[in-house]
Structure formats: structure tokens, C-alpha cells
Amino acid sequence: MMVLIFCPQAQKRPFQPSRDMRLVQFLAPHLTGPHVGLESENGEGVINLNAFDPTLPKTMMHFLEQGEPALSVARSALTAQLPVLPRSEVTLLAPITRPDKVVCVGMNYADHCKEQNVSVPKEPIIFSKFGSSIVGPYDEIVLPPESKEVDWEVELAVVIGNKGKHIKATDAMAHVAGFTVAHDVSARDWQMRRNGKQWLLGKTFDTFCPLGPALVTRDSVADPHNLKICCRVNGEVVQSSNTNQMVFKTEELIAWISQFVTLYPGDIILTGTPPGVGVFRKPPVFLQKGDEVQCEIEELGVIINKVV
Length: 308
Known about the structure:
4-stranded antiparallel β-sheet
């Protein structure tokens, strides 16, 4: 379900999703367990890669671990005239589930720093979410009874394709499988005042990391650092910026993070959010039961999550 919307400061056409290599993870009633697929050219269906080549892994994690051989099969499937499962017959999962790690970057948009009246960081601010927070592109966000201050944050997510440690910035893109849209749902009371002001608990409640709709491969995105990015709550634009506002770009982030930890295929890096979050509004605004949040990034698509 590729719903396209307008954002202010955008051109007079909706963001056009890339139609090159859009990998998805999906369920279908006639299939057992998750399968890996390709979004069809018009975005209205899914090509089952496991039907095209039964030797391919059935989860995106294992698919990425196979590296170039698996991607080569997917490229072949793109050019073949294959049956398409109608969108109404499949359930899209998050493109990545159960990653080794979800690494997040704080205050990584210059305009987001400005709205907080804080200086731009001299080095990346790193925190994490647990993998159990990940849900699909159209799944519900569950408000936890422990928090009254749940907020929105649209983010560009980088997905690692090749293992690496102490990766040089000049080599970093060779370690990237692709990009997807993330929603870094945040409980501000737990992030800013509880748990010794450590961010982890406020960021990692169940359902606090919707991802999707597809993993758009690195070579299918013209420039990940020049993409319009926006978030809407109940149809109202609350965040609208461009990834060119990122303080530390993908290459710098991978180089920085890989000093400390080994990056594995399927690892996800959330690269920060632009201005417009609820907590810095006057008065602050937080998500309520019944709200609908749309997070959208040019070329990547839109994820739509109902708050319950």
C-alpha cells in the first residue's frame, strides 16, 4: 500500500518512490512464515522471491547475510515476467526483524538542534533501541500505560549489508544494503526525566520502532543525503525537512559506530530526526489513542501507524 502525500516545501507532486530494487518481507495466507519479496513495479503487489528461487533464505536477515549472490537473484527476478501477489493478499512485515542491533543517533539534524536551543554536536550522540521494539509499516503503535508523553520522530534508517569493524568513512557505503523509513517513537517522560535520564527505556517500549515499507537498495537511491522527509499526525504536517540537514552523514556514522562495535548484516542505524517533535511545541503535544502517524521519505515511501 504505497500511499503518497504532500509535505510543505515539497514540489507540487508527492514523493515518488524508487522503482528499482525494493525488497520486502511479507506474510501471505497460502505461505508458511515470512518470505522475502520484491515490491512490484507499480507498488500494488509483491513478487515472491522464494518462489522464483526456492534456495533463497525466507527472512531478510539471512538474505542479507548471503550478500551479493542473493541480491543478484533479486536483480534477475526484477527483469523476469513473474506472477505478482496482489497487495490485498499480503501483509508487509518490517523489512528487517530481529537484527543484532538497532543503533540510534541523537540531535543529528542542524534544524532539530536549533529548535532545542542547543549547539550542534561535535561528535555523534549514540544510543539504542532493542530489536523487540520493531513493528511493520502498517502495524499499530501501542501507548504504554507507564507513559503519558509519547512523541513522534520520522527518521532515515540505514541497513547494514556487509559485516565490518573500524570501517573507514570512504569505504562505508560498501557496507550498506539500503535504506528504509523509521519512526523512532519516544516516551519523553522516560527519556528526559526517568531512568537517570538515560534514553534507552524511553525509546524501546514494544512497538516503538515501525519500519518499512521496503528496504530500498543502496544503488536505487540517488542521494540518501538529499531526500525530503516528513511526518504527519492525523493529516497535519508536524515535521518537514531534508536529509541534507543531517550533521553526520551515513559514511561518518558508520565509521564512528564501527570504532566501538562490529556491524553485522541487518543491523539498523536510525540517523536522527528533523525539527517539529511534540515535546518542544508550546504547549507540548503528545500522541493520543486513535491518532494516525504517517512517516514519509522521498524515494523510500511512507509508513502509516495507528496509535492504540
